[in-house]
Structure formats: structure tokens, C-alpha cells
Amino acid sequence: MSRTTSLRPRTVVIGLLVLVLVMLATVLVGASDLGWRRVLAEIAAQLTGGTSPLSEREAAIVWQLRVPRVLLAGLVGAALASSGAAFQGVFRNPLADPYLLGAAAGAGMAATIVVVLAPATTDWIVGPLPIAAFAGALLGVGLSWLLGRSSGGTGTATLLLAGVAVAAFLTAVQTFVQQLNTETIRQVYTWMLGGLNVSGWREVLLALPYVATAAVVLCLCARLLDVLTLGDAEASSLGVRPGRVRLLLLAAASLATAAAVAVSGLIGFVGIVVPHLVRLLAGASYRVIVPLSLIGGAVFLIVADHIASTVLPGELPLGVVTAFAGAPFFLLILRTTRTRMP
After folding, report:
1. Full-prediction pTM beyond 0.90?
2. How far are the Cα atoms of 75, 78, 279, 294, 314 from residue 297, in angstroms, in the given order?
3. SS3 helix, strand, coil % of the chain, rounded to 5?
4. pLDDT of residue 340
5. Which of 23, 54, 318, 320 has the highest CB neighbour count under 10 A?
6. From CA 233, how far away is CA 105, in angstroms rounded?
7. Which sign does the torsion angle of CA 174, 205, 86, 94 carry?
8. How far apart are CA 232 and CA 88, in angstroms?
9. CA separation for the pair 188, 109 (Å, rounded)
10. In which residue ranges of the chain is pLDDT below 50?
11. What is the rounded distance in angstroms from the CA atom of residue 328 to the CA atom of residue 113?
């Protein structure tokens, strides 16, 4: 396949069309059997001002449960996939994922603290757990960055090692806090397996501004990711400051990851699988990979969440479904790629 360096409008249109069709299909068919024709008639009635065939309760299932859940799945998938593409480009490693710099460990620690120590609250505008997870994810990335800078290293390898150290420390803190109240372990692990079963419009509005901001930054900087693949010396000769570019990209990717973790828990493999599929199908340029990963990640996670909510009478954790799809793909990548990306 020839190396595609520009994003064709036709490709974006096809991707967006697939996304819209997948979103519509998952809204029409859900765990509650409302009849897809009746749901379609309800959507048409809302758009045209006609008469709805659904009862008030059935309409609430569509607009208060299905629609926000589909939108949130799309936001989380887009955030994780585009962040994965950015991390792979910055670290020039095909196995890099959005949780690389301690975002998952920080979010897990903060969420555990809230579950174990915070009193139950029902009158908050936004629940304390997503706020804590968001702050914890940013804390983990921030500590990794500070540790990497203070160690005297300037390369991505130093930052990566700092992320490993910070993640290990934060995971130890999380384990210690869990032992303070072992009755909450099940609730903590349920959150860590990921899921959107309690999502609504509040979570969509919480994640949207952060994911949108990060997506704009990543798309605008996609060309700079291509420049970074040439090496720091070549990038500097072209007028690019590699250190500043990496900092901006990592900040944007970490912000998107933190927002995704806050509303969905920890969902693995999206940031590895989707960018690689895009690379195989559409080309190796990050001007192609980043925007198509946004679309592909949304499609991937919407489908995965629909499977998680409908395949069994009881709902599967979303992280389990993505692991079933992602783990074999991860092993394939491990066998067929080198540590360094071309």
C-alpha cells in the first residue's frame, strides 16, 4: 500500500456515514424490546413534530438512556483512540496506549479513595467519583512529567520510565486504601472494568468539552507528529521544536484520556486496536490516522458497548468486551511489528 499523507474528504464522509448508521442502529435496537420500527417512528416524530407511537416510559428509555449512552460511548471511544494514536506517534512505539503515563493508575487510586472514604452523595450536580477519577488521571500524568523532568533526562524513554514508576506507586496507594474497607473491593473493581450502564446526559456534558478540546489540538498537530517521525534533528531543521510539540500532544492526549476515564472507568485496548486498523486501511500518515481514529474509535466502542449490554441477560463489563477483541489483536501486533515504528 502506498503511503497516504493527506486525508481525502471522501474517506471522512464514508467514516462519518458509518458512524451515523452505527449510532442509529444501536439506538433502534436495545436490551428493552421496543421494536425498531416504533423507535424509528419516535425519532421521526421528534424531528417533525408528529405523534409518537411510544408511551412516556418507552420514550424515556430512548432519550434518557439509549441516546446519551450511545453518544457517551462515541466520545469515550474517540478520546481513547485518538490519544492512543498520539502516544504511539510521540513515543514511536506501536504498543503505546493512552494509559502509559500513569493516567489509569491515578484515576484508579482517586476513584478508590472516593469509594472507600467519601460519604454517599446524591445531591451533587456531578458525582464525586468522575471528578476524582478525572483529577487522579491528570495527577498521574503530571507526576510522571515532573519526575521525568527532574531526573535530568529529556527523551521519551525517561518520561516512559517515570510513568512506570508513578503508576507502580499510585497502584500501591490504591491497594492500601482498598484494604481499609474490603467491602468496597467489588465496587472498585466493577468501576475499573469499565462500563456505561449508569451513564446519562450529565456524563455526556461532563466529557464533551474536554474531549472536543483535545480532539481539535490533536488534529491540528497531526502534521507535527509526522515531522517527529523523522527524528529530532530533522524536525529542528524544519523549524519544529520537538520538546514543545511532545508536551502539547501529551497534554492533549492525557486530557482526553482523563475525561474518558472519569465517565467510563478503565477500558483497555481501544487506543491500540483502532489506530493500527486505521494505519492498515488508510495509510501511515498521522494526518490520516488521528482524525480517522476519532471516528473509528467512536464506532468501535459504540459497537462494543452494544454487545456488552445485549449479548447476555445481565450486562457484561465493557472492558471485558474490548479485551476479547483487543487482546488477540495486541498479540498480533507484538508478533508482527518492531519496537520502533517506521
Report:
1. no
2. 9, 5, 13, 5, 25
3. 75, 0, 25
4. 43
5. 318
6. 34
7. positive
8. 16
9. 10
10. 1-3, 339-342
11. 33
